[in-house]
Amino acid sequence: MRIIAGTFRSRTLEAPAGLATRPTSDRLRETLFNVLSPRMAGARFLDLYAGSGAVGLEALSRGAGHVDFVERAEPALRALRANLARLGVAAGFRIHGAGVGAVLRKMKPGAAFDVVFLDPPYDAAQEYAATLGLLGGAAAGLLAEGAAVIAEHRRKERLEDTYGALARTRLLEQGDAALSFYAASAAN
Questions:
Q1: pLDDT of the residue at 186
Q2: How far apart are CA 181 and CA 22, in angstroms?
Q3: CA distances from 56 to 95, 116, 138, 161 (A)
Q4: Which of 27, 123, 142, 187 has its Cβ near the most Cβ atoms within 10 Å?
Q5: pLDDT score at 23
Q6: What is the architecture of the domain spanning 26-148+166-184?
Q7: 3-state class of 128 per DSSP?
Q8: For residue 188, what pLDDT is reported?
Q9: Are the CB atoms for 70 and 103 separated by under 8 Å?
């Protein structure tokens, strides 16, 4: 696993041992950031179910101003902290070592995240509906105007077209994975 582009280009990352954490592949991260590149300069990025932090670190490498990492598994948190240290990142991030739902409920409205990425364990399908439902409802105040919310999921698993105020704007499929892009609907 490595950083694809930007300040930390080609630097390697570690991932926790075992199968509990499934890092986003280099190829899928490249596709994701090709789409997001116009939004990255100075962006506030929220990396939910961050695992080793590969997606959030890619965002920092490509010019994000700040990344909040949310991860509760201790092995993944150790890998995330090791990756930050390995890259020499000392500022511009915050780590929340707790469950995603609890963190989203506790954050103050107006956090103004420009990009939110979520990649729950594929076997935790209920996490998609719960998290997207929060972001399209009670936690919608955490999103900046025009924010993008992206969910990585199995290609065969179909997510809903809408979750509260969030409406899917794009679906990209690559191999066995897919990226569903959401934005707040114009009615809100």
A1: 57
A2: 20
A3: 11, 10, 24, 25
A4: 142
A5: 66
A6: 3-Layer(aba) Sandwich (3.40)
A7: helix
A8: 43
A9: yes
